[in-house]
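Extended Data, panel c. Modelled sequence:
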Amino acid sequence: MDITINHGTDYGYSAPVSYALQKVRLRPLASQVQRVAEWQIEIAGGRIETSYRDHHGNHVDLVSLDPGGQGLRLRAHGTVETLDGSGVFGRHDGVAPLWYYRQQTPLTRPGAAIRALPAVAPEPAGQLDSLHALSAAILQALPYATGTTGADTGAEAALQGTSGVCQDHAQIFVSAARLSGLPARYVSGYLLVNDQTEQEATHAWAEVHVEGLGWVGFDVSNGVSPDEKYARIATGRDARDAAPVAGLRMGSAEESLVVSLQVQQ
């Protein structure tokens, strides 16, 4: 399936800013489940200082704001050809070892609420069924709704609330899977939704490494495993590792952010 994406991110500042730097993960990479037909990143008000692959294998662009600027626009657009792997991404590669993905982070550190979720079966033969059961239990405990959590909300705090979004669901799932000793990671990307070209944000799901299969994906928010409607951007141990855009600035200027996103076939 060909998925066409147009993703705009506009930063505005109330006063001239002497220095600002954004870490941008907005370049999808070729993999077992997708091919990048075309992709471009256009920048207004700044420039790419350098690019590199991080230890998760993500492509990262470091984008600086023009000195004294009051606005930065990032526009990523192109077409990704996706394949349906029935939720299976496959073998692990990259420089980060599997044991690294068994480690909790400040955003995934479990508390009583996550520890009360169903455990994952210890044997590989039963793990897929129990992982799907875990996904269903998370969605039942934390229905999907926007506006109750933020970008810095940890998994335990989110689960103790009344509702959450895909970031919360993915981080809770990752935390619970690690409690059962399994490598788990967070995935950011795009989801093609029928009859909904305009979207408010990128999507997120989780992957667990299952013996004999490799990385297997679980979209808790939608109760499915990723198929050809999903395009990947980045992976990491939590949402912070895989954030499409994150950065810092010097000065006391107030910052505004406007995101526009269209995903269509």
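The CA atoms of residues 46 and 104 lie 35 Å apart. This feature is highlighted in the accompanying rendering.
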